[in-house]
Each structure stands twice: as structure tokens, then as C-alpha cells.
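I hope you will forgive my troubling you with a question about protein structure. Could you please explain, in whatever detail you think fit, how the C-alpha cells follow from the sequence? Thank you for your consideration; the sequence and its C-alpha cells are set out here.
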Amino acid sequence: MLDLAYEWFWWDRLWLPYNLTWTDLEDRDGRVYAKAGDLCFTLPCAVALMVLRWLFERSVATYFAHLLGIKDRVRLKVKPNPVLEESFISSSKHPKQSEIETLAKRTELTARQVERWFRRRRNLARPSVLKKFREACWRFTFYLVAFVAGMAVLVDKPWFYDLRETWKGFPIQTMLPSQYWYYMIEMGFYWSLLFSVASDVKRKDFKEQIIHHVATIMLISFSWCTNYIRAGTLVMAVHDASDYFLESAKMFNYAGWKTTCNVLFIMFAIAFFITRLIIFPFWIIHCTVIYPLEIYPPFFGYYFFNGILVVLQLLHIFWAFLILRMALKFMTGNIVEDERSDREETDDSEEDETVKNGPVANGHGTATAGTGAGTAALNNNHRKTE
């Protein structure tokens, strides 16, 4: 049964044009072709990148965070309460008024105390500014290095300037060492994003991010196995062209550099719209949809490859909508903040009590009026684009 499924999965007619077989993609006459087994190397690459990220975030990223004055803000802890904790985890992090009143009766607390407990508990569950900065710093570094490396791989290639060259002689196109490492590291990076998804900062487009990572891995894998390597390198380069602007904007946002953050966000928006909404659909997808038909008739692999590209393009349109919303807020003079991110909640009622009655007991520590004002100021500094 397994042998039959294996043979069906690797059936020539599924993934290759009608006049080609897998034997045509075996090394011969000095030509080297990509092999499916090479993709196994991307998993150790992913682990190595995760280790490198751990070291980078705790050394380089932390150093720059301290240099920019970014520190973990002190958050008020909550008094242990099994009933409220169970409701927070299993029911809702934002209980309705009727639920708050029910919980208040069960715990013999006032409704205001229950509301305060949930506010503090939500804040404790949110990632700290330092954690966000470290993650953005790592991604900025990788995307920038990947983009520069991608340009180095492509800049001297004829298909970088004439997209018809992408399919010239296909599939008899030897694989270059630079293409091999470009693929292994890029795919290893996306594997690492999937492996670390549970610990990374979660945003409202979490599901879309997962779809994007899975689609990218499928796209890279398919283009590798079927020798669509030239097209694959173009797709990866286009995707790396704008992301480092966004991550650098996040870094300066967390540092409170509003003007620098806004300038970088504008640069990101321009680069995103040019690469993802113009170059990608009208150059890259046009190249993969139209030009191959001049060589061979369409087949399943052709539809599969372009189908994944269309999925990515739909995600680009979704993110472009979010960027436009932020850009409109920026142009109208409102504070720009990431549409995908949760805000840190302040507890004004606690600050009022602090002013009137002194420190507010929270079961594990106290908060003075000065601390409340300081944390509120920090919160205001970090409520723009994430």
C-alpha cells in the first residue's frame, strides 16, 4: 500500500511535462540537478538557525536593546485565584459583564476587583517589549542578509534581467552551488519559523502567517524537486526585498523613535507595494504562467506551482489592506500602530487608588504613583506599528 502511494506521488505525469521523466533530471554530462533528498538538509539548517537565533537574541539583540534604552517594564502581578485562572484559560480572556458578576459571586470579590484581575492577567500573558525587540532584531538581520545574498546570487544571471531566460533550455539547467545554499538556508529559516511558532510573538494574523509559511515551504520544495530553481530564486528575492524595512521599523518603534519608525514604515509600504503587488503578480506570476506554455502544455505540476503563487498573492493583498489602514491613520495624524497586535492595557483605576491611598497591594508587590505614570508613558511610546 505504501509502495503504491509512493509510486503514485512521484508519478512523472503529475510533476513533470509530458515528454520528461525523473531520469532526465539525473546528473550527467557535467550537469548537476537538485535532488529531493537534499531537502532533508533543511531540517538541520532550521535547528542551526534556531540555535543561532537564541544566541543572537541574548547577545547582539539585547546589547542593542540596552543601547536604545529598552527594558522590560514592571508588570503588576495577580493574586493566585484558581477560579479566575480556570476561567481565563478555558473560557474567555475578556469576560462579559454577566460573566464578571458570576465570577465575583463565586470568588467573593467585587466586580471591579475581578475586572482588575483580568486586566493584569492579560498584560502578564502579553510578550514584553524586550522580547518583541529581540525577535524583530533577529528577523531584520536575517531578511537583510538574505536579500543581499539573493541579489548576489541573481545579479549576474541573465534571467534576472530577461524573465524568458528563466525557461531557456528547461529542464536541462544545471544547479549552481550558490543556488543550493540559497535554497537550503531560506527553507531552513521558514522551517525554524514553524518550529518556534509557539514561543514567538502572536498577532491577529497568526493563521495567515502559518498559511504563508506552509505555502512557502511547499513552493520551495516543489520548485527544487522539479528544477524550477531559477523561478524559485526570483520568488524568494522578491519576498525578502521589503521585510527588513518592517522589522527595522518595529525595532525603532519599541525604542520610542517615532520619526525614524514612521520613515521606515513608509519605506516598507512603498517597497511592499512595488514588490508584492506589482513585480510579483505582473512579472513573476506572468513569467510562471505564460512563458512555460511556449515550451510544453500545462500539466498538474504547472497548476500546482502557480496555485501556490496565487495563494501567496492573496495573502499579499490581505496584508496590503492592513498596511493601507495604518497608512491612512498616519496621513490623518493619528498614531500608527500594528493592526495585527494587541495593546498593553493600563489600569487607570489603580493609578487613582495609588494617588489617594498610597501603594496598591496586588498580592505579590506594590505599585507607586511614579511607577504607574512611568509604565503608562512607556505604553504610549510603544503603541505604533509593531
Observations:
- DSSP finds 14 helices and no strands in the chain.
- The chain has a mean pLDDT of 82.
